[in-house]
Write a structure and sequence with these properties.
The structure holds 2 protein chains of 2 kinds. Chain A has helices at 2-20, 33-42, 47-63, 72-82, 86-99, 104-118. Chain A is mostly helical. In chain B, strands 1, 2, 3, 4, 5 and 6 form a 6-stranded mixed β-sheet that branches. The chains are: A mainly alpha, B alpha/beta.
Chain lengths: 119, 228
């Protein structure tokens, strides 16, 4: 009985995992952004791991010459800023600035303020 | 800085009154077409329910829904963090801040406001059904309303049937337990967002990064010419 419950929950979890990564006919590369952001808020003990995985995802995309979805570079910048890494924050805000013209007013202000604080 | 620009009671009252008036689904996109926004600022979600995760779930699933429509969506957590730096912690206060101020602070073409009127999880022996009621409003950077929608939805997580009734019974009890501990927030809000922004009379026009953008506005121009 216990074994069958275990097996069923394993099948069930597998079901969740497979539906999680079903389609990828997307306009942009989002990776695991939605789940990661929700868990970032909901499970603070996972924050460090989530930030690392978001940054790794962005680096991988960059290495293969792809652009991440709007906002993802900036979110990584903010994650780093909240960890106290201003240099990293500036780097990612600059990437958002360069990738998406619509972000430029906001990113320029952020980058300049952070640089002013540093100097 | 923004705090100084906040207006008190009267504005809040006006917002509340306007909020009640937009229950009807509208198919009038004239203002939206004229404004043709390229970027949307999604501000933190007002939560009238007692579920603290509900607004986070809504906020988390909006960028992809709207980004896939072709709009530049400002990074929601970065926006939330910056507003907090400005002393704006309360979504209700943010929603009552003049939209012109918010739009110019971020350089946004339009702002999306979402309010959760209801989020109630009902646990009934083997399944949890969550009943929600969301209100969505897109406002132009000059403060004019471009679009609004209201979505009521009853959501029950889907089970994967094994073909064995006893196994299904146990499996759905497990689903219910998971749903209770950590309700399936994201699938629910994704579904609500999807229905509102992609389906029926409320579906919004494609944004500039959509492959259908040019075609859409060209067809619109032709329609207008024929009408003239």
């Amino acid at each position: 009985m216990i074994r069958s419950v275990k097996r069923i929950s394993a099948i069930f979890l597998l079901g969740i995992l497979t539906t999680g990564c079903a389609t990828n006919n997307n306009l942009h590369n989002w990776g695991n952004y939605e789940n990661n952001l929700f868990n970032y808020y909901d499970r603070p003990e996972l924050q460090e791991a989530i930030v690392a995985s978001q940054i790794e995802f962005l680096r991988e995309l960059e290495n293969s010459g792809k652009r991440p979805a709007p906002g993802l570079f900036a979110e990584a910048g903010t994650f780093l800023l909240l960890e106290g890494d201003r240099k990293g924050a500036i780097e990612f805000y600059q990437k958002e600035h360069d990738a998406w013209p619509e972000s430029r007013p906001m990113m320029s202000v952020l980058i300049n303020n952070l640089k002013d604080e540093q100097s | 800085m923004i705090r100084l620009l906040l207006r008190s009671g009267t504005l809040a009252l006006m917002v509340l009154v306007a909020g009640c008036a937009v229950n009807q689904e509208s198919a009038d996109f004239t203002a939206f077409h004229d404004a043709q926004p390229k970027s949307i600022l999604v501000v933190p979600v007002v939560n009238e329910s007692v579920d603290v995760q509900a607004p986070l779930s809504v906020l988390t699933t909006l960028p992809k829904t709207l980004g896939e429509k072709g709009y530049y969506i400002f990074p929601v957590n970065t926006v939330k963090t910056l507003l907090e730096y400005e002393g704006l912690y309360e979504p209700a206060v943010i929603h009552n801040t003049p939209p012109e101020q918010l739009a110019s602070l971020f350089g946004a073409d339009a702002i999306l406001y979402v309010t959760i009127h209801e989020w109630t999880a009902q646990y009934v022996v083997l399944q949890t059904t969550t009943v929600v009621d969301f209100e969505y409003r897109i406002v132009n950077h000059d403060g004019a309303e471009l679009w609004s929608a209201r979505k009521q939805l009853s959501y029950t997580p889907q089970n994967h049937s094994s073909g064995n009734p006893l196994a299904d019974l146990i499996a759905s009890a497990i689903t219910a337990a998971l749903e209770r501990a950590d309700p399936n927030y994201l699938p629910l809000t994704r579904q609500a967002n999807q229905q509102v922004f992609y389906q029926g009379a409320t579906a919004i026009p494609p944004g500039p990064y959509s492959p259908n953008y040019k075609e859409y506005y060209l067809a619109l121009e032709n329609q207008e010419e024929t009408a003239d």
